[in-house]
Amino acid sequence: MMSIVVNSKKAMVGSMLVRQGSGGVGGARNATTVAVAEAKEELRKKEVVVSNSDGGNKNGGLVSYWGIEPVKVTKEDGTEWKWRSFRPWETYKSNLEIDLKKHHVPTTFMDKVAYWSVKSLRIPTDIFFQRRYGCRAMMLETVAAVPGMVGGMLLHLKSLRRFEHSGGWIKTLLEEAENERMHLMTFMEVAKPKWYERALVFAVQGVFFNAYFLAYLASPKFAHRVVGYLEEEAIHSYTEFIKELDKGVIANVPAPAIAIDYWRLPAYSTLRDVVMVVRADEAHHRDVNHFASDIHFQGNELKAAPAPLGYH
Ligand SMILES: [Fe+2]
Ligand SMILES: [Fe+2]
């Protein structure tokens, strides 16, 4: 979007030059041409060549008229921080000690519906992906990043409508969505989606976003419980992924650079180390969502309990 605006302004400067060059007369023409040339030089000086690896225009040519200068951030070792989508203060060391086996036993009718809905979704997922866990992880993360955004958005709107605080839950759910998206940004470095997988993601997103949106409107208690169980399944999938890595069925390649920076992993970490920290993240999401559902189950709104902000 920015580059379109910038290019159109550049084109405007160019066309001014052409117009003045072809139709202007004498001193007035020269003065305008000089002014435009100066403006052009000013633009050239301001030109920021962006070279990064998380979404920037590698060829540069980006010009800012708005006084927004890129802030140069460095890592602890003094080298430049290359990720624009997250900054060093948003990174963390994963808590690998978290209990992976914790399970919410479904007792109420609603919990059982949530539990068996998730269990039944496992069947087509297993059939589609078989044991291709890299691909499976990448595809499922495209879905996993949706609930936090939907829940966060609905709580945001509720906070606006009611003139009240959210107790930190908006941020907590948006943090979860962002964390899941970082899982996707990581796995797409080791597994490339095929065209029909991209098409599937497109279709599934359309259905799942709307289904979850309606479910959250109807019953946040149910919606959070579903996500709690989805996270339990995610932990299981990543455990199977680790087993395949240990057996040598899946190559334990070096960890993507983005993962090393995001989870502050040692420089020579491997894919196995990445799956370990991602699995720990899923366990944290499981706790947050079951907790949120429990708050509703006790007849409260989420803001009644302090939100587990920064819970990794
Ligand atoms: Fe995830
Ligand atoms: Fe998750």
UniProtKB/TrEMBL annotation:
Superkingdom, taxonomy of origin: Eukaryota
InterPro entries: AOX, AOX_sf
GO molecular function per UniProt: alternative oxidase activity; metal ion binding; superoxide-generating NADPH oxidase activity; ubiquinol:oxygen oxidoreductase activity
Localization (cell): Mitochondrion inner membrane
Database matches in CDD domains: AOX
Ranges annotated as spanning the membrane: 138-157, 199-218
One of the GO BP terms on file: alternative respiration
Catalysed reactions listed for this entry: 2 a ubiquinol + O2 = 2 a ubiquinone + 2 H2O
Main location: mitochondrion
Keywords tagged on the record: Electron transport, Iron, Membrane, Metal-binding, Mitochondrion, Mitochondrion inner membrane, Oxidoreductase, Respiratory chain, Transit peptide, Transmembrane, Transmembrane helix, Transport
Cofactor note (record): Binds 2 iron ions per subunit.
Cofactor(s) the protein requires to work: Fe cation
Gene3D superfamilies found in the cross-reference section: Alternative oxidase
Coiled-coil positions: none
Major enzyme class: oxidoreductase
Membrane topology value: Multi-pass membrane protein
EC code: 1.10.3.11
GO CC annotations, alphabetized: mitochondrial inner membrane; respiratory chain complex
Similarity remark: Belongs to the alternative oxidase family.
Cross-referenced PANTHER family: ALTERNATIVE OXIDASE
Assembly behavior: Homodimer; disulfide-linked.
Protein name, as recorded: Ubiquinol oxidase
